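Lay summary. Proteins are chains of building blocks that fold into shapes, and those shapes determine what they do. In this project we predict the shape from the chain. Here is one chain we studied, written as its sequence of building blocks.
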Amino acid sequence: MKPPTKLREAVRAASRVATNARQSDIAQTTGAVSEDEPSPGVVLGLRSLPLRIVGFVVLAVAAMVFWRVGSSAYVYEADVALYSAIGALGLNLLTGYAGQVSIGNAAFLAIGGYTVVFLGPQVPFPVPVIVGAVAAGIVGFIIGLPSLRLRGLYLIFSTLALQYLVSFAFDQYDSSTGAIAGHFITAPSLGFATLDNSRSWFVVLVIALLLVALFVWNLARGRPGRAWGALRQNETAAAVMGVNVIRSKLVAFTASSTIIGLAGGIGAYFLQEVSVSYYSIDLAVSYIAMILIGGLASIPGSIIGATIVTMIPFILSSTASGSGSEGGFLQHNLSSIETGIYGFAILIFLYFRPAGIASLFRGRRRAVGRTVSKNSKAVGDGSGD
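And here is the predicted shape, written in a compact code that computers can read:
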């Protein structure tokens, strides 16, 4: 008697997922690459680690130059992009790496921000940020429990319900405390300096982003990342392979919400203002646009997407202030225009570039690698003759 059709399909899918996982593990362990996709380290005659160190040094020097000579307005916009990139990395961890769709990221940002409101006057920075991240992680774990039985559209609705519940709770708190216009946050002190300007914040945000990116990179390359990759391809096949689906999903939701809550706490201190109207569904959509534009399951893509999306309001404001008679219309409709641009950008990238901007760099690197490998092979054959 033949096994049931669903079981046969699950076994075939598990076999494909296992094959891909073994190939990925072999490539990461031995550094082996296929002839069609040579690694950049092989192409340049360097191993990948020195190449990454060189790239990191170049980026560090560029950041230092920008920090020293950039205007205050541009440094401020860079600060916004940096703390937004932290939240985008958290969302990408859940949606890009683990394949769990969520639209409740603004709720976790709000939890981190309002924790600063609750604890900011009593405890020093950065304790409220850390507590807010932990609180967001606990809520993420709780909201992750329904994900064990919900998928697709139902999972989206459950995270959307969290967004409205959190907004309602903090709106009631603002009404009860008389803070209808929001809460003012004093500039924090970090040992030797007070973070009251964009240049001092730039250093702190760069360090925070690097630490979060390193954390996400380690998760993605480790056992959790391999489990999430299997879940993303086929959840049933992952279970057949022995992946603990329950634990993998809960870890993804908890880690993602913790990072997003961390970004919310940092953002509250940076903006020096917390208001429930800020953590709206429009903000959630903007973070979704970040990871879709930059690239799913990509750390550089999250940073690129955050930079692009956070620059849109700056460009619109500059255009509105310098457009004369039309400036009034743009100035009074900036929020609606921004949301429309986010939605349009999401549609464009989903249709024409589903892998995001980060895939452009990967494709160019592979093309260069194939060309150089062919030339090297031809040279080797010629010398052998």
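What the prediction tells us: Residues 73-285 form one domain.
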